[in-house]
Every structure is written in C-alpha cells, then in structure tokens.
C-alpha cells in the first residue's frame, strides 16, 4: 500500500482537497481547473474567451462553469474578466495538471502515437484513482532513470 502522505507524492494536499469535494467536482470541472491552472503557469492569466477556446466550448458555457467553480470556493475573483483560482482551486489544479502529465508521460513511454496520447490522456485522467497514478509515476521514473531498460523495451517491441 502506498503512503499517500509520503513526501515523494508532492500533490498530497491537492489530492485530499479533490477527494473531499469529489461529489461536487465533475470531470468537466476538473478540465476547467486544470486548464485555468495551466494558463496561470504559462500565460500568467486567462480570460473567459481564451479559456473557452482552449476547452473548445462556448464562452457562455465557460462563464456558467466559472460561476459554479466560484460558488464552490475554487475561484477567487474575476477582475476585468481575468480568472483567478483561490488557494484551494490552485492546489487542486496543480494536482490535476500533475495527474495529466504523469498519464501523458506513461502513454509516451508505452510508445503510443502523439495524437492518441492526447486523446487518451483526456479520457483516462478522470477515471484513475490516486494509487494508480502514483504507481504510474514510479514506473515513469523507473524508465527515465534506467534508459537502458527503456531501450530494451523498445527493442523487444520491434521483435
Ligand atoms: Fe487533462
């Protein structure tokens, strides 16, 4: 059994917050939180229009969803249309982005095609529990630190 509180698993807080709010946060909300958090890192800020483009939804749907996230205490404010996550929203967003990255990396190690990787990651991410994500992370790290073994896997596949 994995120790969810171990330091190794640095998204512990985000995970716990997500678990506590599990029944309130739908997969669609997870996508929003992940995207807003991602934008916060990459573009520093995001507005409704940009967010709806990125998520491929109508601006009106994005706006409704952002209001819902606000009522759950996950958004702090929306000043001049700029979306800002609350601390709680940020912790969960960070966890969701890490979860996404772990699955994406795993599928890449498996040798999936780039197109498939993105589609599958978006489908799988909402359905794996934290233990599985954590085990995938260990496997990813194992292959990254053992490139010879990763190469053997590639050769084996070709046979
Ligand atoms: Fe994602």
Key features?
Arc Repressor Mutant, subunit A, binds fe (ii) ion, 2 strands, 8 helices, 159 residues, elongated, two-stranded antiparallel sheet, single chain, disordered N terminus, 6% strand, mainly alpha, Diphtheria Toxin Repressor, domain 2
Architecture overview:
The chain has 159 residues and is mostly helical. It is 69% helix and 6% strand. It folds into two domains: 22-86, Orthogonal Bundle (Arc Repressor Mutant, subunit A), CATH 1.10.10; 92-158, Diphtheria Toxin Repressor, domain 2. It contains eight helices and two strands. Strands 1-2 form a two-stranded antiparallel sheet. A hairpin with a 2-residue loop joins strand 1 (75-79) and strand 2 (82-85). The termini are far apart. The protein binds fe (ii) ion. Fe (ii) ion binds next to loops.
Helical residue percent band: 55-70%
Report the strand count: 2
Q: What sequence of helices (H) and strands (E) makes up the elements?
A: HHHHEEHHHH
Biggest sheet character: 2 strands, antiparallel
CATH homologous superfamily label of the largest domain: Iron dependent repressor, metal binding and dimerisation domain
How many whole angstroms does the radius of gyration measure? 17 Å
Structural class: mainly alpha
- Widest sheet: strand ordering: 1-2
Number of discrete domains: 2
CATH architectural arrangement of the largest domain: Orthogonal Bundle
Total of DSSP H or I helical runs spanning 4+ residues: 8
**Strand portion:** 5-15%
| Weakly predicted, low-confidence segments | 1-10
**What would the principal axes of the Cα set say about the shape?**
elongated
């Amino acid at each position: 059994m994995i120790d969810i509180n171990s330091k190794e698993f640095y998204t512990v807080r985000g995970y716990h917050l997500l678990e506590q709010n599990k029944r309130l946060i739908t997969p669609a909300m997870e996508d929003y939180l992940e995207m807003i958090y991602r934008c916060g890192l990459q573009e520093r800020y995001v507005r409704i229009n940009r967010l709806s483009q990125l998520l491929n939804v109508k601006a009106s749907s994005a706006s409704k969803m952002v209001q819902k996230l606000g009522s759950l205490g996950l958004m702090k404010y929306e000043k001049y249309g700029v979306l800002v996550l609350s601390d709680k929203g940020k912790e969960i967003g960070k966890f969701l982005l890490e979860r996404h990255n772990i699955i994406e990396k795993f599928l890449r190690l498996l040798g999936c095609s780039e197109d498939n990787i993105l589609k599958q990651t978006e489908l799988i991410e909402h359905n794996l529990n934290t233990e599985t994500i954590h085990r995938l992370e260990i496997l990813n790290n194992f292959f990254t630190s053992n490139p010879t073994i990763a190469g053997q896997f590639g050769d084996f596949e070709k046979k």
